[in-house]
Write a structure and sequence with these properties.
By secondary structure, this protein is mostly helical. It has a single domain, classed as MetI-like (MetI-like fold, Orthogonal Bundle), CATH 1.10.3720. Helix content is about 70%, strand content about 0%. The protein has 13 helices and no strands. It is globular and about 70 Å long. It is a multi-pass membrane protein. Belongs to the binding-protein-dependent transport system permease family. Keywords: Cell membrane, Membrane, Transmembrane, Transmembrane helix, Transport.
């Protein structure tokens, strides 16, 4: 059979591509050119204003000799591991719970997903009040008669990072729940019937069969959570301002402080490029693996 092309199809296709030109131009100017400009500034001796000279990797050497930057990377690594693991586990458990056709499912989905609609600033402020030793949980429990109860992590240098994990997991786990729930609803009901007939325990079905089938949803959730980790700034500023001291310092706050507070755009640009390369190093292989898995699924 010979395919017949409609006369207007080429014009319609051209019009569709033409409509994408403004968006493509904005993306090119706002992202690609900005990244290139940042990379150029990062190899200059720029301070308050951009400089046109070239100092090679000097800014990067200064960056990795900066104790505050190294601490921010360490904090980000600890935070990222705890945040992503907690969100994936809690989101999966919530998705499994709602997938049991529980009563009030629509309301529960809304309740669990609602925190994600809030800004990180609002979340940080709310949790700052909740964790404040003089106003929050500690004070409430002590008023109930437990005078020795202590929950002052937000003012403890060795525990403050965990309070940020608690606040942001509360906000983001609903998103993971929504993504995984859509994946669970796409699993054929016959699989569950076969598992029941074979007498396979339900937990074993989830671990050995369901989780591998949820790989596309899990990888999407992981990428979104990883981007949230790298962008972490609002919640830290709202909750702790990077303190006590620099105990909760993160790279995004380091960049903003050096860009606006210390007027050192060269060092801030170098830090930005390091973060960008970190994201690409993690996300690009994951995208490649997803593409390969999709090709195997179609073949």
């Amino acid at each position: 059979m010979v395919a017949v092309r409609r006369p207007g199809s080429s014009l319609a296709c051209f019009s569709a591509y033409l409509a994408l030109v403004p968006m493509a131009a904005v993306a090119l100017g706002a992202y690609v050119l900005t990244i290139l400009w940042t990379a150029r500034v990062s190899v200059s001796s720029s301070r308050i204003f951009p400089a046109g000279d070239f100092v090679g990797l000097g800014q990067y050497e200064r960056l990795f000799r900066n104790a505050r930057w190294l601490l921010s990377l360490e904090n980000l690594a600890v935070y990222g591991l705890l945040f992503i693991a907690a969100c994936l586990v809690l989101g999966f458990l919530l998705a499994v719970f709602i997938d049991q056709k529980v009563a009030g499912e629509g309301m529960l989905r809304t309740v669990f997903l609602y925190p994600y609609a809030m800004s990180f600033v609002a979340t940080g402020l709310v949790w700052q009040w909740i964790l404040n030793p003089e106003l929050g949980v500690q004070q409430v429990v002590r008023h109930l008669g437990f005078d020795t109860f202590a929950f002052d992590w937000i003012v403890q240098q060795d525990k403050v990072l965990y309070t940020i994990v608690i606040a942001t997991v509360w906000q983001a786990s609903g998103l993971v729940m929504a993504l995984l729930l859509s994946g669970l609803r796409g699993i054929d009901e016959e699989l569950w019937k076969a598992a029941r007939i074979d007498g396979i325990p339900k937990w074993r079905v989830y671990v050995s069969i369901v989780l591998p089938m949820l790989w596309p949803s899990l990888s999407t959730a992981f990428m979104l959570l990883f981007v949230m980790v790298v962008k972490l700034f609002d919640a830290v500023v709202a909750m702790t301002q990077g303190g006590p001291g620099t105990a909760s310092e993160v790279p995004a706050k380091f960049i903003m402080d050096y860009l606006f507070g210390r007027a050192n755009i060269g060092l801030a640009s170098a830090a930005s490029i390091v973060l960008l390369l970190t994201v690409l190093a993690i996300v690009a292989p994951l995208y490649y693996a997803r593409g390969k898995a999709a090709q195997r699924g179609r073949s």
